[in-house]
Amino acid sequence: MKLIIAIIRPDRLNDVLEALYRAEVRGLTVSRVMGHGGETERVENYRGTTVKMGLQEKVRLEIGVSEPFVKITVQAILASARTGSVGDGKVFVVDVEQVHRIRTGERDEAAVTPPIPEPV
Amino acid sequence: MTLPALLLLVQDAPAPTVVPADTAWMLVATALVLLMTPALGFFYGGLVRSKNSLNTIMMSYVALGIVGILWALGAYSLAFSDGGPLIGTLTNALLAGVGVEAKGTIPHVLFMAYQGTFAIITAALISGAIVERMRFGPYIAFIALWGILVYAPVAHWVWGGGWLGKLGVLDFAGGTVVHINAGVSALVAAAVLGARKDYGRQAILPHNVPFVLLGAGLLWFGWFGFNGGSALAANASAATAFTNTFLAPMATMVVWALLDAIRTRHVTAVGGATGIVVGLVAITPAAGFVSPVGAILLGAIAAFPSYFMIVWRSRTRLDDSLDVFAGHGIGGLSGALLTGVFALKAWGGTDGVIGGNPAQLGIQAIGAGASFVYAGVMTFVILKALGLVMQLRSETRAEGVGMDVTEHGEEAYTSGEGSILVIPSESAPMQVPAGSGLPATATR
Questions:
Q1: Contact, B59 vs B131, CB < 8 A?
Q2: CB–CB of A52 and B420 under 8 A?
Q3: By the 8 A CB rule, do B189 and B139 touch?
Q4: Which of B23, B250, B348, B438 is 20 to 30 A from B256 (CA-CA)?
Q5: Nearby residues of B164 by Cβ (< 8 Å), 6 or more positions away
Q6: pLDDT in tens, B155-174
Q7: Alpha-carbon dihedral of residues B142, B147, B149, B152, nearest 10 degrees?
Q8: Model confidence over B75-112: pLDDT tens digits?
Q9: A84 CA: distance to closest CA in chain B (Å)
């Protein structure tokens, strides 16, 4: 049971989501974040003010997965988020002590296994 | 009174004089039409993704600069000086002979400025088809050439004493000259540029629908100058055009909302804004020629072709991104043809179908068709020629990052977090005297 945290480019998000969907990875959290990955700083001009944008917009994905899904998930992200330029991002795989599903109280492996969708 | 008719009148009358009332109205009308270009910028800017919003709005604003200046330098002369049936001459180039003497009943300079606002917005209209992917430099080159090679001749054909005006084509304020012209050019430009990389693969949604509504509202406001001012006088014709500009979009919006409600079970805001613009486009050629009831009918009917064109187009691979062809090309065509149906002599036009003159419909079709073919072919030629000397499209990577950053080095919505102020004197490497023991350059 791991937590996979990926920091990616915003313009790769749709491709990553598509790759994760194809890999049957369900259940994730996405947030917009600012970060710096060593890429060349972009220069912007606003009238007389010149600024280097030290932080770039990035997207952070957080995905709790069971062991068999760790490699699949990481591979899917690596393949879909890569452009080859500095600033593509990182994938962190972190050990998780406990997971609880709030709705059912299920724990750990059961809590990160996607539920069968209820009929609408 | 139509513009060609007015020009004939001018030729007959030996000493035209400036009428203060007409001048006052045309001063206001010119400012109103100029406002339509920023309004269009916001209408379009709201419809694109936030990463392209500045670029999209700038595509309209830059027309205010480049097309407006070229208009004064030469395009005005090509459009409105006496010449052959196809194009004017350069007698008024660099505004030679464009002074305060009367042109019609208003000063010649004011006439030039008023017509200039039309050239500007017509070029800007095309941008909606190629947003989010065309590089800014080639876009500027394109609208500059287009203003001279497409807008000026077509304006001459209809309004400048050219062959379509002489044929009797009714185009009160530019259904053919402005809307069919821009709409067809947009269609061709979208096809030449190709679809955006994400088109058809992921949802591309409007980033600011309130901008779209605000833009549509300001377009409507400006359009009173566009249509009402096309009477070129503060007279009954202006009042008719004004009232029809008031009524027709109302009818189009209502029908559009009904179609939306039937198709999606909701009356949408973007649909409402689009309906207003389509109604304005459709009434443009008819504004001073039809009765107010005719305008309501015209507006209501014109909703259908454009609505279904938009629905159909978005299912194809043709990425006319903001549906300029459906709105202006098809809307303009509906308006041009319906003018031939609803025009009445009693309201200032030549009788159309309902006035017992079905031949007018044929004349309208010739005008629309000529503009359609010429604008389409010329846009293709201009873009292909530019494509030989410059790259029209941005790189796929740049398209992903967004045109605001890649083309303008600015962002529409930035908090400034994490940005580092560059002090000009500190940004340049300090020159170190030779033999000082320091490296050749050092940054303070």
A1: yes
A2: yes
A3: no
A4: B348
A5: B157, B158, B171, B176, B366, B367, B370, B371
A6: 999 999 999 999 999 999 99
A7: 170
A8: 999 999 998 999 999 999 999 999 999 999 999 999 99
A9: 11
